[in-house]
Amino acid sequence: MLRYVHTNIIAKDSKKVIGFYKEVFQCKSIGQTRDLKGEWLDRLTGVKNAHIIGEHLCLPGYKDGYPTLEIFSYDEMRVSIRKEINQSGFAHLAFEVDNVKEMLQRIKDAGGGQIGEVVTTKFEDGRSAEFVYATDPEGNIVELQCWSKKSEYKAAK
């Protein structure tokens, strides 16, 4: 068997970040909260006396509880540099929304931020899309996108 299961965010304040994704993106709890510690976790993470708390949230648009967004906090956190869109490694989460500007405002109202501008572009297949990069309250990058359908694009000409 092969299936995608989850994406993990390590948060300074997991309760705050969990609340943000529930409020803004309507992620739902699947009843999988975690309070993990023990020798097995130390071996798995390579962190001595590791203690992780957090929760799995079902992403919008999916059933059966998967895939999830796993939001955890460690008791002892390492400080890192600010995340940037062109930094190597994990870059962002993307959500398709009905209205980019309205969702961006919801993000800002919930303590998130904005990177760059809201842009609209047309593609060779006749569709257009509006995009913006935003951030959650801890600076994790979130892409918002709203796609037109070919027929909507042609009818709007």
From TrEMBL:
InterPro entries in the record: Glyas_Bleomycin-R_OHBP_Dase, Glyas_Fos-R_dOase_dom, VOC_core
Domain VOC as annotated: residue spans: 3-147
Coiled-coil annotated residue ranges, if any: none
Protein name: VOC family protein
Origin organism lineage: Bacteria, Bacillati, Bacillota, Clostridia, Lachnospirales
